[in-house]
Methyltransferase
Amino acid sequence: MTPAIPAYLEQMYWWAYVRPWAVRLFDRQWMVELILLGNYGRLRNETLKEFGTDLSGRTLQVGSCYGDLTPCVADKVAVSGGTYDVIDILPVQLENLQHKIRPDAPVGTFLMDAAALQIPDASYDRVLVFLLLHEQPQEYRKRTLKEALRVLKPGGKLVIMDYGRPAWWHPVRYSTLLVYAWLKPYAVDVWNGELTELLAHEMSGREWSKTTYFGGLFQKLVSSG
């Protein structure tokens, strides 16, 4: 059965992700660089660096994303002889992704809800969540993280790249907060609490490292335990 599109996506983000014209407008490299204040390339490269050169085994990306991150990861997976699965709840996003990756890339695309993955436990060696969590309501965010941890193999690596709380002196701190409150209201929750505190039981037994970028406006969370 085809999963239903969450109501919040249609209500809050129809203009950014749901409509085909929105995908054509926003999935341009210069556009994602502009939206991320020139930081997309850096966040992509830091994500690739975190995975290293060996991407053998199985890799999962929870949520499609704009820009060339997924094709870059796919190239590294192909060299390593691994496989790479990408899930998204929006058919238009998966269709768009299929146009961005090479026909022979070891990439599978699956229509799935990030908060209710139809995937067995401990299936993947590594899981990537790239600029997704700040788009979700808090309860949905918790469920997405819980699912990402559930499908990760023991000892596997979870990499989360997302917005964070910028330092008090950051020149875009207050202007960004106003934009968040208007266009990305769920992102404000990411400012007000640590992502690792969302699931106290599931996350407490894992080792986490956190790296911030651009004065704290972006963060990378990595768990390898």
